[in-house]
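Thread amino acids onto this structure.
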């Protein structure tokens, strides 16, 4: 279904539909244990999003790229990618996603052995939840 949606979206000039379909394929690959395939599909989705000029379309592909790096054990790269995702979501005024990505960032710091940084990030996340209702 996602392959058909990619074709439809390309023919219709619908970058949002194409990004969503490519993102869906990335998720399927990841759930099937194919992290490199998931990363490749997410990169494709991000490329479409970047060409579109619509920054909101970058959100899901960037999240997946960071998650794949984390799941692959490349915590330093994941940390950088989560920081990029946080910056994007702050620019898009999406506080729930910002908080979620900070939570993921905290797990990266924990895995890197930065216990104080992780502890602070988890505590700040809790405070953000209550502050944002």
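Threaded sequence (133 positions):
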């Amino acid at each position: 279904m996602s392959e058909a949606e990619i074709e439809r979206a390309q023919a219709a000039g619908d970058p949002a539909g194409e990004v969503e379909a490519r993102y869906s394929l990335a998720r399927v690959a990841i759930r099937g244990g194919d992290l490199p395939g998931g990363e490749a599909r997410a990169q494709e989705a991000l490329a479409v999003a970047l060409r579109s000029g619509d920054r909101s379309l970058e959100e899901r592909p960037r999240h997946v790229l960071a998650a794949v790096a984390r799941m692959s054990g490349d915590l330093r790269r994941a940390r950088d990618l989560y920081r990029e995702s946080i910056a994007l979501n702050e620019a898009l005024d999406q506080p729930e996603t910002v908080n979620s990505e900070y939570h993921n960032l905290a797990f990266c710091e924990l895995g890197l052995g930065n216990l104080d940084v992780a502890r602070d990030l988890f505590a700040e996340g809790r405070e953000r939840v209550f502050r944002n209702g």
